[in-house]
Design goal:
- The chain has a single domain (31-145, 159-193), classed as Growth Hormone, Chain: A.
- The chain contains nine helices and two strands, in the order αααβαααααβα.
- It is globular and about 50 Å long.
- The protein is mainly alpha-helical and 194 residues long.
- Disulfide bonds join 34-189, 56-60.
- One of its GO terms (biological process) is erythrocyte maturation.
- This is Erythropoietin.
- One of its GO terms (molecular function) is hormone activity.
Protein backbone atom coordinates (compact mmCIF):
# COMPACT_ATOMS: atom_id res chain seq x y z
CA UNK A 1 0.00 0.00 0.00
CA UNK A 2 1.58 3.30 -1.09
CA UNK A 3 1.85 6.35 1.13
CA UNK A 4 -0.68 9.05 0.30
CA UNK A 5 0.05 12.73 0.64
CA UNK A 6 -2.10 14.74 2.98
CA UNK A 7 -4.21 17.37 1.14
CA UNK A 8 -3.25 21.01 1.81
CA UNK A 9 -6.59 21.80 3.46
CA UNK A 10 -6.02 19.01 5.97
CA UNK A 11 -2.56 20.38 6.82
CA UNK A 12 -4.14 23.78 7.37
CA UNK A 13 -6.81 22.33 9.65
CA UNK A 14 -4.31 20.25 11.63
CA UNK A 15 -1.87 23.16 11.88
CA UNK A 16 -4.56 25.44 13.26
CA UNK A 17 -5.50 22.80 15.81
CA UNK A 18 -1.93 21.96 16.85
CA UNK A 19 -0.46 25.48 16.88
CA UNK A 20 -2.61 26.85 19.75
CA UNK A 21 -1.77 23.75 21.79
CA UNK A 22 1.94 24.39 21.39
CA UNK A 23 2.43 21.12 19.56
CA UNK A 24 5.02 21.07 16.80
CA UNK A 25 3.71 21.43 13.30
CA UNK A 26 6.63 19.69 11.72
CA UNK A 27 6.15 18.72 8.14
CA UNK A 28 3.51 21.39 7.63
CA UNK A 29 4.07 23.46 4.53
CA UNK A 30 6.19 26.51 5.36
CA UNK A 31 3.61 28.85 3.88
CA UNK A 32 1.19 27.91 6.67
CA UNK A 33 3.75 28.73 9.35
CA UNK A 34 4.63 31.99 7.58
CA UNK A 35 1.02 33.15 7.35
CA UNK A 36 0.93 36.60 8.98
CA UNK A 37 -2.66 35.91 10.02
CA UNK A 38 -1.37 33.42 12.58
CA UNK A 39 0.80 36.07 14.23
CA UNK A 40 -1.95 38.65 13.96
CA UNK A 41 -4.38 36.38 15.80
CA UNK A 42 -2.05 36.21 18.80
CA UNK A 43 -1.41 39.95 18.67
CA UNK A 44 -5.16 40.63 18.63
CA UNK A 45 -5.66 38.39 21.67
CA UNK A 46 -3.03 40.46 23.49
CA UNK A 47 -4.68 43.70 22.39
CA UNK A 48 -8.05 42.42 23.60
CA UNK A 49 -6.54 41.61 27.01
CA UNK A 50 -4.89 45.03 27.11
CA UNK A 51 -8.23 46.72 26.38
CA UNK A 52 -10.00 44.73 29.11
CA UNK A 53 -7.38 45.68 31.68
CA UNK A 54 -7.17 49.37 30.74
CA UNK A 55 -10.38 50.13 32.59
CA UNK A 56 -9.22 48.91 35.99
CA UNK A 57 -6.26 51.19 36.69
CA UNK A 58 -5.57 50.70 40.42
CA UNK A 59 -7.04 47.23 40.77
CA UNK A 60 -4.99 45.94 37.82
CA UNK A 61 -1.61 46.70 39.34
CA UNK A 62 0.93 43.90 39.36
CA UNK A 63 2.19 44.91 42.84
CA UNK A 64 5.75 44.60 41.49
CA UNK A 65 7.67 45.59 38.40
CA UNK A 66 8.15 42.78 35.90
CA UNK A 67 10.98 42.99 33.37
CA UNK A 68 9.77 42.65 29.79
CA UNK A 69 11.46 43.11 26.40
CA UNK A 70 11.48 46.62 24.96
CA UNK A 71 9.25 46.46 21.91
CA UNK A 72 10.54 49.59 20.17
CA UNK A 73 12.17 48.79 16.85
CA UNK A 74 14.74 50.96 15.16
CA UNK A 75 14.03 49.79 11.61
CA UNK A 76 17.32 51.12 10.24
CA UNK A 77 19.33 49.24 12.89
CA UNK A 78 17.14 46.14 12.49
CA UNK A 79 17.80 45.95 8.74
CA UNK A 80 21.55 46.29 9.29
CA UNK A 81 21.52 43.56 11.94
CA UNK A 82 22.64 40.11 10.86
CA UNK A 83 19.92 37.50 10.65
CA UNK A 84 21.47 35.46 13.48
CA UNK A 85 21.50 38.55 15.73
CA UNK A 86 17.83 39.17 14.91
CA UNK A 87 17.11 35.57 15.92
CA UNK A 88 18.93 36.07 19.22
CA UNK A 89 17.00 39.28 19.91
CA UNK A 90 13.63 37.68 19.15
CA UNK A 91 14.37 34.41 20.96
CA UNK A 92 15.59 36.22 24.09
CA UNK A 93 12.64 38.59 23.93
CA UNK A 94 10.14 35.75 23.61
CA UNK A 95 11.79 33.90 26.50
CA UNK A 96 11.68 37.00 28.72
CA UNK A 97 8.09 37.72 27.70
CA UNK A 98 7.07 34.13 28.49
CA UNK A 99 8.65 34.42 31.95
CA UNK A 100 6.91 37.78 32.49
CA UNK A 101 3.47 36.44 31.52
CA UNK A 102 3.92 33.43 33.81
CA UNK A 103 4.99 35.78 36.64
CA UNK A 104 1.94 37.99 35.99
CA UNK A 105 -0.28 34.93 36.07
CA UNK A 106 1.23 33.89 39.42
CA UNK A 107 0.73 37.40 40.82
CA UNK A 108 -2.91 37.30 39.73
CA UNK A 109 -3.40 33.93 41.43
CA UNK A 110 -2.01 35.32 44.70
CA UNK A 111 -3.96 38.58 44.62
CA UNK A 112 -7.38 39.62 45.84
CA UNK A 113 -8.34 40.87 42.37
CA UNK A 114 -11.22 39.27 40.48
CA UNK A 115 -9.48 36.47 38.60
CA UNK A 116 -12.05 35.11 36.19
CA UNK A 117 -11.76 37.56 33.24
CA UNK A 118 -8.02 38.10 33.61
CA UNK A 119 -7.27 34.40 34.06
CA UNK A 120 -8.85 33.68 30.68
CA UNK A 121 -6.54 36.22 29.02
CA UNK A 122 -3.49 34.85 30.82
CA UNK A 123 -4.40 31.32 29.76
CA UNK A 124 -4.66 32.50 26.15
CA UNK A 125 -1.35 34.36 26.39
CA UNK A 126 0.45 31.32 27.82
CA UNK A 127 -0.95 29.07 25.07
CA UNK A 128 -0.06 31.70 22.49
CA UNK A 129 3.51 32.00 23.73
CA UNK A 130 3.94 28.23 23.61
CA UNK A 131 2.67 28.20 20.05
CA UNK A 132 4.91 31.12 19.09
CA UNK A 133 7.88 29.31 20.58
CA UNK A 134 7.01 26.31 18.41
CA UNK A 135 6.67 28.61 15.40
CA UNK A 136 10.10 30.13 16.03
CA UNK A 137 11.62 26.68 16.37
CA UNK A 138 10.08 25.74 13.02
CA UNK A 139 11.66 28.85 11.51
CA UNK A 140 15.02 27.89 12.99
CA UNK A 141 15.27 30.79 15.46
CA UNK A 142 16.43 28.65 18.35
CA UNK A 143 19.21 27.20 16.20
CA UNK A 144 20.18 30.68 14.94
CA UNK A 145 20.10 32.03 18.50
CA UNK A 146 22.65 29.53 19.81
CA UNK A 147 25.87 31.36 19.16
CA UNK A 148 29.49 30.29 19.46
CA UNK A 149 31.24 31.72 22.54
CA UNK A 150 33.20 34.38 20.59
CA UNK A 151 30.05 35.63 18.83
CA UNK A 152 28.28 36.02 22.17
CA UNK A 153 30.79 38.72 23.10
CA UNK A 154 29.64 40.88 20.17
CA UNK A 155 25.96 40.23 20.81
CA UNK A 156 23.92 43.28 21.70
CA UNK A 157 22.22 42.83 25.08
CA UNK A 158 18.44 42.63 25.02
CA UNK A 159 16.84 45.99 25.78
CA UNK A 160 14.23 45.75 28.51
CA UNK A 161 11.59 47.85 30.24
CA UNK A 162 9.34 47.16 33.21
CA UNK A 163 5.61 46.56 33.39
CA UNK A 164 3.75 47.47 36.57
CA UNK A 165 0.19 46.81 35.40
CA UNK A 166 -1.59 43.96 33.64
CA UNK A 167 -2.45 46.39 30.86
CA UNK A 168 1.22 47.23 30.24
CA UNK A 169 2.13 43.53 30.28
CA UNK A 170 -0.47 42.70 27.63
CA UNK A 171 0.51 45.79 25.62
CA UNK A 172 4.10 44.52 25.48
CA UNK A 173 2.82 41.05 24.52
CA UNK A 174 0.83 42.44 21.59
CA UNK A 175 3.52 44.90 20.46
CA UNK A 176 6.29 42.29 20.59
CA UNK A 177 4.33 40.01 18.26
CA UNK A 178 3.43 42.85 15.88
CA UNK A 179 6.96 44.21 15.94
CA UNK A 180 10.13 42.17 16.26
CA UNK A 181 8.53 38.75 15.98
CA UNK A 182 6.65 39.67 12.81
CA UNK A 183 9.75 41.27 11.29
CA UNK A 184 11.87 38.21 12.04
CA UNK A 185 9.25 35.74 10.80
CA UNK A 186 8.80 37.76 7.62
CA UNK A 187 12.53 37.74 6.90
CA UNK A 188 12.85 34.03 7.73
CA UNK A 189 9.96 33.16 5.46
CA UNK A 190 11.22 35.42 2.64
CA UNK A 191 14.61 33.75 2.58
CA UNK A 192 12.81 30.42 2.36
CA UNK A 193 15.68 28.45 3.84
CA UNK A 194 14.29 28.41 7.34
Amino acid sequence: MGARECPAWLWLLLSLLWLPLGLPVLGAPLHLICDSGVLERYALEGKEAENVTMGCAESCSLNENITVPDTKVNFYAWKKMEFGQQAIDVWQGLTLLSDAVLRGQALLANSSQPREPLQLHFDRAVRGLRSLTTLLRALGAQKEATTPPDAALSAVPLRTITADTFSKLFQVYSNFIRGKLKLYAGEACRTGDR
